[in-house]
Amino acid sequence: MNITLELAKQLVAEQFPEWASLEVRHVKKSGHDNRTFRLGETMSLRLPSHQAYAAAVEKESTWLPVLASQLELPITTPVAKGEPSELYPLPWSINNWLEGETLQDGSIDLPQFAIDLAQFIRQLQSIDATDGPVAGAHSFYRGGDLAVYQQETEEALKQLEGVVDTERCSHIFAEALRSKWTKPPVWFHGDIASGNLLVRQQRLAAVIDFGTSGVGDPACDLVIAWTFFDKENRLIFKEHVQMDKATWQRAKGWALWKALITYQAEEQAVRDLARHTLTAILSE
Q1: Quick one: 193 and 243 in the same domain?
Q2: 61, 93 Cβ separation under 8 angstroms
Q3: Are residues 90 and 109 in the same domain?
């Protein structure tokens, strides 16, 4: 969808005239699933870029206040919900603005960050998941059964024959499929990635974008172990997040699936991340 700064301004003026005088401006990283704009000094606009991402608006409106009240770290919280209109056909949201820079290597104390992130994930999992949104299409099946992506992974492996070590990749993925989460469902974020983690003064400061969140298997929240951490800090993260071996193997499967399907992506940054992730997985 063609989501422009002018459209964002028009939506605010149309549905929230009390904020029409506030400046709407671009942010450094607008996002993929949603386009984000700054609204004044304390709020942000979040507009789904496709119908597939629209279900997250209602989910976040309902559940983020619940999660925020029980988490030590600040997270995105809704201020108001915009409705579909002739200007824009999907629901959208106005949220609080959280200060910080998106995570990047060199911007943080890595060992401490590994501990802080593990503690956030454990605290998220400790929140009562009763009646929470069960993993499914709204979370793109994160938090659900990795087998949903088995066929896609196998097709990617066929395309990458002779390019990557497909035999080892197949073995790792098969290992990931051998277990299921058999404990009660827990809360998961669904997209613990650099762009959704804010840093201030070299520490984890906030977590944003809960669009793929839900309740289910938390393995998907461990993927950052291979997408971002080096070997030393991966071990620190693993020690403090305190998940069992089978969950760790499923997490590796989630990381492998994404790396394989994006290994030949058009966007250079996406390809680079896929190749970094695959190297980290195969180096273990």
Answers
A1: yes
A2: yes
A3: no
Dump pLDDT digits (tens) for 140-185.
999 999 999 999 999 999 999 999 999 999 999 999 999 999 999 9
Whether the pTM exceeds 0.85: the reply is: yes
Q: What angle do CA 132, 133, 139 make, to 5 degrees?
A: 140
Contact 96, 38 (CB under 8 A): no
Question: Cα–Cα distance between 93 and 77 in angstroms, integer?
Answer: 10
Same domain flag for 153 and 254: yes
Domain of 210, CATH number, reads 3.90.1200.10
List residues bridging with 10 in a β-sheet.
Answer: none
Residue 100 CB contacts under 8 Å (≥ 6 apart), including other chains: 198, 199, 200, 205, 206
Helices 268-282 and 166-177: crossing angle, nearest 10°? 80
Instruction: Give the total number of structural domains in the chain.
Output: 2
Per the structure, the complete domain to which residue 37 belongs is given by 5-96
